[in-house]
Amino acid sequence: MEDWDEIDRLIIEGRRIQAVQAIRAARECIIPDALDMLAGRYALLRATRPDDLTQSDEDYWAGFYS
User: Fold this and answer.
1) What is the three-class DSSP state of 20?
2) Cα separation, 13 vs 27, whole angstroms
3) Most buried among 1, 43, 49, 53, by the most CB within 10 A?
């Protein structure tokens, strides 16, 4: 998906809600699917760009209920 650069930026900035909105707009999907994609993309970024994600997983997802 060509919009991953923008979505990755949102994820790295901790803007999870905006990332879900961007995923939904790009993929025209329902919220549960967008949440799954967010989690998958976060895991990929955590594995491939760990220096960009400065918070622990626990801190990153704190207060985010899906």
Assistant:
1) helix
2) 21
3) 53
pLDDT higher than threshold 90 for residue 2: no
Tens-place pLDDT, residues 37-66: 999 999 999 999 999 999 999 999 999 887
SS3 53: coil
User: What six digits make up the tokens of 10?
Assistant: 């949102």
CB 19 within 8 A of CB 10: yes
Say if CB 37 and CB 10 are below 8 A apart: no
- 24-38 tens-digit pLDDT: 999 999 999 999 999
The residue behind tokens 């491939």 is: 48
CB 15 within 8 A of CB 52: no
